[in-house]
Amino acid sequence: MFSWLGKDARRKKEPEFFHTVSDGLRRLYAAKLLPLEETYRFHDFHSPALEDADFDNKPMVLLVGQYSTGKTTFIRHLIEHDFPGMRIGPEPTTDCFIAVMHGDRDGVVPGNALVVDPKKPFRKLNAFGNAFLNRYFCAQFPSQKVQGFEMTSSLLSVECGRLARRYDFAAVLEWFAERVDRIILLFDAHKLDISDEFSEVIKAMKNHEDKIRVVLNKADQIHTQQLMRVYGALMWSLGKIINTPEVIRVYIGSFWSQPLLIAENRKLFEAEEQDLFRDIQSLPRNAALRKLNDLIKRARLAKVHAYIISSLKKEMPAVFGKENKKKELISGLGDIYQKLELEHQISPGDFPNLKKMQDHLQTMDFTKFQSLKPKLLDTVDDMLANDIARLMTMVRQEEALMPKQIVHGGAFEGIMNGPFGAGYGEGAGEGIDEVEWVVAKDKPMYDEIFYTLSPVNGKVTGASAKKEMVKSKLPNTVLGKIWKLADVDKDGMLDDDEFALANHLIKVKLEGHELPNELPDHLIPPSKRRQE
Q1: b/e 8-44 (16+ beta carbons within 10 angstroms → b)
Q2: Which of 163, 284, 293, 317 has its CA 20 to 30 A from that of 311?
Q3: Are 171 and 77 in contact (CB under 8 A)?
Q4: Third-level CATH fold of 425-531
């Protein structure tokens, strides 16, 4: 008689099929999370509703800094091309938000036009009004103009600290922080002072510490001793603002295309730039995971928000004394937080900022709040427990299919290949372009040691080689790797060439370089090459 109920239940339990991670996130948000947000007016308190462009947009980098820290020059250095609306100078020239993006042709799109474009993820910025939109524009340029560079990232340059603003600057930055893949805070090695507004901006990004990176720019203008002091002062200043035990990654360098003024830290700057470029290059590969992570954070906040709103609704009187009760509930919101924390086992870090929540509630009509609807919460719980787990599997599958280097061109192109790539000709790469075997120059010294080990038939055993190799004081795990690399013919013994190679690799490691996973062709002893 009621067989149709069973069919309906089975139909609901059947997992949905998603073509891509972005497609899955979009559909899950619309079907399972958005109804909860709309019911409890989440968008009036926290963040506007997500649109299709938020799930489909390319990775974005938010670049924030005070005046004259080199923001525009930094972008110019990355893309190696002037972009529309670019101005560089010692005075505060970038006093607005600039989105640098790929387009069909050179041009500038004003803020008011940008926020009505359904293909761009900026439509919800319309809520900040003309005061903001008049200071916001998009600089577009075709990728072929920058030697094949594909703009897989949008960089937004923000000036902090000199202007009286007629919009909520920190709220705008918080909106961007929720949606970008990486946040770069830019500092000048000569001007470490952090303005009150910049401090508020950093605090507004408190829930996005995992996205934040710091760049200490113009570091080539000071000597090593001064640089150490500046770095320490920067970490101390940031520690007071961010107030977390985790240390934020700081990249030190001079990010422009001019000669270094003081070149004594050149190797440090090159290594730091390489690390930063690798971090930016990882963004497209990790974009789907970042969107997934942000949706999970949003869902957790929406659940907590629903508990708060429904709890306030429950406490409101039916007829008289509504206004007084509202004031009482707002002032005692902290106690409600504690009650909900115990009742629903919610982590304290999942609750929204108490002061901001109280400010928002002042203008709200509590009588229009909705009571708790368990079905909506169960739907979101099901999404987090089951659907998200399936999307995680798809994320790894999509990452595996992506090319290793997705961001290319511009400054990325000059350091990826050729003699100016990171570590080229150093460590295990030494001698890569030389005709003669690089180990040969030190081989007479290694041969003297080799023949003191009493080789049999021109070879020493592993036990004999070990007695000499442990003198390096390297860990057994490292020496074991060196042994595997040096034993080219895999016979469990070392001849004089292989012994010399082992000592060369020990030297490479002692000099602070990493060992290769496989022996490079130029390090294979000539005698072994002939056998091949």
Answers
A1: eeeeeeeeeebeebbbbbbbbbeebbbebbebbbbee
A2: 293
A3: no
A4: Recoverin; domain 1 (1.10.238)
The predicted-structure confidence for 418-474, as pLDDT tens digits, reads as follows: 666 666 767 788 888 888 999 999 999 999 999 999 899 999 999 999 999 999 999
CA distance 97 to 107: 16
Instruction: Tell which residue, 33, 37, 40, has the closest CA to residue 312.
Output: 40
Q: Mark residue 457 as left, alpha or beta (left: phi above 0; alpha: psi -120 to 50; beta: remaining).
A: left
Amino acid identity for residue 327 in this structure: K
Which candidate, 132, 111, 135, 134, places its Cα nearest to that of 123? 111
> What's the token pair of residue 383?
């999404």
Within 8 A by CB and 6+ apart from 105, the residues are: 140, 141, 142
Backbone angles phi, psi at 262, to 5 degrees: -125, 110
- Which residues, in sequence order, are CB contacts of 327 under 8 Å at separation 6+? none
pTM (2 d.p.): 0.76
CATH topology for 56-292+402-407 is Rossmann fold (3.40.50)
Domain ranges of the chain: 56-292+402-407, 320-368, 425-531
